[in-house]
Amino acid sequence: MLRHVCPECLSAAIQGEPQLLDDLDDALIRETLPRIVEIVGEAPWRSWLPFDRHEQFSDDELLELLEIGRMVPPMGLISDAYGGWANVLHVAGFGDVPPPSSRGIRSTANDGHSCFSQGERLIDDWFDANGVEHTREPPYPGGRFRGDFLVGDNIVEFFGLAGQSDYDARMGSKAEAARRAGVTIVGVYPDDLLATNWGGTQQRLAEQLGFEIVTAKAAPRQRPQQIDMRLKPLGPFVPPWVTQPCYDVEPGYYSDPYGSGGARWNDGTAWTYRVVVSGTAMSETPGIASEEREWIASRFRHSERAGGLLAAGRNWAQGLMDALANGPFDPSMPPLKERTIHRLAAWIDLAENSQHHVDEWPYEVAAAFFSVHRMRSAEAAVHARYESRFRRPLESAPHSALALRRRGHLPDDTAALFAIRGAAPAGDALDLDPSTSSSSVADDDYQKAVWSFLEAIGVEDIVDVSGPGSSVHLLSDDAAVYLHGSELLRKRDLKPFAGTAVHGSLTRVAFFRGEVSSGAREFAVGEGIGCFRLDPPGKPMPVNWDASGFFDDHSEDESLVDSDPDFFVNN
User: Fold this and answer.
1) Which CATH number fits the domain that encloses residue 170?
2) Distance between CA atoms of 270 and 461, rounded to whole angstroms?
3) What are the distances in angstroms from CA 496 to CA 102, 510, 531?
4) Which one of 32, 118, 161, 427 is separated from 418 by 20 to 30 angstroms, measured CA to CA?
């Protein structure tokens, strides 16, 4: 049955969605846990969502368990929220059920009998539901052994540990004692209780013990009084700095009041992290003290010798992740200091402005931070910022952007401190477009020329993904494209493009006017970037083997390119 369930729904039901902790309350526990216990047929100390044993349940029972799984957070978070699983059981009405013993999972049957294993409990409840008189722990003749149940003159044994040598030897001694005394032993094994075998087991027991089956299900358990521990759901945490917009202006770039020395994008209600300084689009989250930026920069500096980030930065980030994973749950716990959030934002700024390879780690840590602290709109803002940068979803976060949207959590940059309301902009918006403000970025006519060429050679599904700070301007089904509009392509121009994370199946292709420096040529070869010289209305010219291979993979019409061998630098 599970193979017919969509993977996303199945994963959410099996693993649980941590954000459902926002809706956790006593009513949800009482609605779900007793029904799980009833379906699973196990003591509530162990009963949860046993999808690893799905073959034991009917399709209807599995469907109901899946529906419950989509309603509740992971079991561990529930236990943490209530201060232990015993408190959860009290809320659900199972406060009288004893904890597991060394012999198995102890529980109290519907008729009040103490049972020492899940199998004993199922058999006892079934006897009770069918009106079968039975006693627990009857002595064998001679008094040396005790059985599990006595029904009439028959001893019923549940051989729960069959296969273990010591246990089997003891059961052999019991069988010999019963044979000498003329007592019949009716045995039940763990496999007899599987959903596929339980019907036949009931028929056999009824025939051997001499009674008629009334019901295959145990009667609902009479539960003691339920205990109230939390009267209302926690809900998402809204930090105190999140306020309603106090002005409404035309979105645009305005003179930056936060010290970047350039222009900052105001989305109409708040100052964002997008700035343009000296014609270059950058990320600079407002409100972060210079010493915090310096602290981050000193730890997350790229080391050529180490081949990556310095150990100080890795240790800080991993320490924060460990604290988030291992820290105790406290419903009243406020977010960690704003300084931590500022440092996370500064780390993301640094990564987005870096010319070295950028991965999703800072976004992953920020999303985990906001998730643990139930700051859902801030968590969604991290997803939105990542997708704006990399044009693909952040897959390593605790929740997907889709899961957050489905529960009504929309991105709010002010919640994540990526943006500040501040005062309204002074003066009019600047006539500034970061996609054309730098001489190194191509204009619309250049983009059209590249687009036409790509379509002519058969490249499909081309989309414009250019935006502030983006080093990828076009995406297709098999390529990421960088457009360079100045007269000279340099190594430093290609580094951000090489460092932008794109799907591994995409080929990186760069188009430029004019000349290419020797450093850029060598860097492009090392990074596998295909470079085309294109100066409209002329034809594109492949200037390295990667570009030539990209063209050959799409078209055999050599009239579409200028293949001058004197310029083909890798020939």
Assistant:
1) 3.40.960.10
2) 35
3) 61, 12, 15
4) 427
* 362 and 450 co-located in one domain: no
Residues 79 and 104 placed together within one structural domain of the fold: no
Q: Which helix (H) or strand (E) holds 204?
A: helix 195-209
Spell out, as residue ranges, where the chain has pLDDT lower than 50: 102, 220-221, 223-224, 231, 328-335, 357, 435-441, 567-571
pLDDT (tens digit per residue) in 368-414: 899 888 888 999 999 999 887 776 788 778 777 877 887 788 999 99
In a domain, 411, yes or no: no
Domain boundary among 39, 62, 97: 97
- Name residue, tokens 């009239």: 559
In the numeric block, which tokens belong to residue 184? Answer: 């019949």
- CA distance to 9, 236, 270, per residue, from 379 (Å): 21, 11, 18
* Same-domain status, 88 and 108: no
Alpha helix ranges (H) inside 146-286: 165-181, 195-209
What's residue 440's pLDDT?
44
Label the pairing between strands 154-158 and 149-151.
antiparallel
In this predicted model, what pLDDT tens digit does every residue of 516-556 receive, in sequence order?
888 899 999 999 999 999 988 889 999 999 999 999 999 99
Rounded to whole angstroms, how far apart are CA atoms 185 and 166? 19
pLDDT at residue 568, as a whole number: 46
Instruction: Count structural domains, the chain.
Output: 4
Query: Of 527, 523, 521, nearest to 508 (Cα)?
Result: 527
Number of other residues whose CB lies within 10 A of the CB of residue 513: 18
pLDDT at 518: 87
Residue-number span of the structural domain to which 171 is assigned: 100-221
Q: Is residue 21 part of a domain?
A: yes
Rg for the chain (alpha carbons), in Å?
Answer: 34
Q: What number of other Cβ atoms are within 10 A of residue 457's Cβ?
A: 17
177 and 114 in a common domain: yes
Cβ pair 394, 367 in contact under 8 A: yes
Q: Is residue 382 domain-resident?
A: yes
Residue 263: phi and psi, rounded to 5, are -115, 145
Exposure of 478 by Cβ count < 10 A (0-12 exposed, 13-18 middle, 19+ buried)? middle
What is the 3-state secondary structure of 417-469? CCCECCCCCCCCCCCCCCCCCCCCECCHHHHHHHHHHHHHCCCCCCEECCCCC
What is the C-alpha separation between 87 and 304, in angstroms, rounded? 53
Are residues 74 and 111 located together in one domain of the fold?
no
Q: Which pTM value belongs to this model?
A: 0.53
Tokens of 303: 């080391």
Rounded CA separation 499/543 (Å): 21
The number of angstroms, rounded, from the C-alpha of 565 to the middle of its chain's C-alpha atoms is 51
Does residue 85 sit in the same domain as residue 105? no
Q: Is 54 in the same domain as 153?
A: no
Q: What is the pLDDT of residue 536?
A: 85
Residue 93 · residue 34 · CB < 8 Å: yes
Query: For 357, phi and psi rounded to 5 degrees?
Result: -60, 135
Domain boundary among 97, 120, 137: 97
For residue 471, give both structure tokens.
């080093």
C-beta of residue 526 within 8 angstroms of C-beta of residue 497: no
Is 268 contained in some domain?
no
What is the spatial distance between Cα 56 and Cα 62, in angstroms, rounded to a whole number? 9
